[in-house]
Design a protein that fits this description.
With about 260 residues, the protein is mainly alpha-helical. It contains 10 helices and no strands. It is found in: Cell membrane.
Length: about 260
């Protein structure tokens, strides 16, 4: 299939570019852009699910890199927490991507739906959570929990992907005690690592369509930049609202997949 663009019409390329822009914006604010981007990527004629997932990862790498840099320049997240998380998440995402080829995602979907519902209820019932940073742990325990979060969520990103940024944010807020803004800034660094880890494995298997990935990548970069600047300007309250919306959509999407056996 070469670049992956031979069978794609100009209208479909335009749709991919607009979708990539929107997905980059959502990912930059709270994660979950894959909910929008992956289904549209699957519209490409002759594209296998593995190729769509791999090419989607390439676009996401561009977007998360842009939003991570933008967040860092304005929020200055603590790299002592973010970098160990990112390193472990990168390795775990690679392992998850390797498993993805052999183990159907349907195995995990019912568990993920239950976890998401619990997360949403937990966040709704604690309206003050995430408004300000109030770390719950210190020293080795803080870093140990951060690394554990990176490993578990990184593995999930390699296998499935959608909602990874949201999981990272809620973990950083609820487990470690960061504000939504600080958590979002750190989540972008970790999410960039998980995308790179998964993309490396997919590339080794020859699943990435580079031309198509470049279209998604450029549009993701634009969306990631706009989204990161918006999140910084609007603060934790705005991120919390978007978080509710994205997690609700994710619950509906995965719940429907479970009910219909997809």
């Amino acid at each position: 299939m070469g670049s992956g663009l031979e069978s794609v019409t100009p209208g479909l390329i335009a749709l991919l570019a607009v979708t990539g822009l929107a997905a980059g914006f959502i990912d930059a604010v709270v994660g979950g852009g894959g909910l929008l981007q992956l289904p549209v990527t699957l519209l490409i004629p002759g594209l296998s699910p593995m190729q769509a997932l791999a090419t989607n990862k390439m676009g996401s790498v561009f977007g998360t890199a842009t939003s991570a840099v933008t967040f860092y320049g304005r929020v200055r997240p603590d790299l002592r927490t973010a970098l160990p998380m990112a390193l472990v998440a990168l390795v775990a995402a690679g392992a998850g991507a390797a498993v993805a080829a052999a183990l159907p995602a349907a195995v995990f979907k019912p568990i993920i739906v239950v976890v998401l519902v619990a997360v949403l209820l937990f966040t709704v019932l604690r309206p003050g959570m995430g408004q300000l940073t109030a770390l719950r742990h210190a020293g080795a325990r803080h870093y140990g929990l951060a690394v554990a979060l990176g490993g578990v969520i990184g593995f999930y990103d390699g296998i499935m992907g959608p909602g990874t940024g949201s999981f990272l944010i809620i973990g950083l807020v609820s487990v470690l005690g960061y504000s939504f803004l600080a958590a979002s800034a750190k989540a972008k660094i970790v999410n960039l690592a998980t995308n790179i880890g998964a993309l490396a494995v997919f590339s080794a298997h020859g699943s990435v369509l580079w031309g198509l990935g470049l279209v998604l990548g450029i549009s993701n970069m634009a969306g990631g930049y706009i989204g990161a600047r918006t999140a910084v300007a609007r603060g934790s309250a705005f991120i919390r609202v978007v978080f509710f919306a994205v997690v609700s959509v994710l619950i509906v999407k995965l719940g429907w997949d479970v009910l219909t056996g997809r």
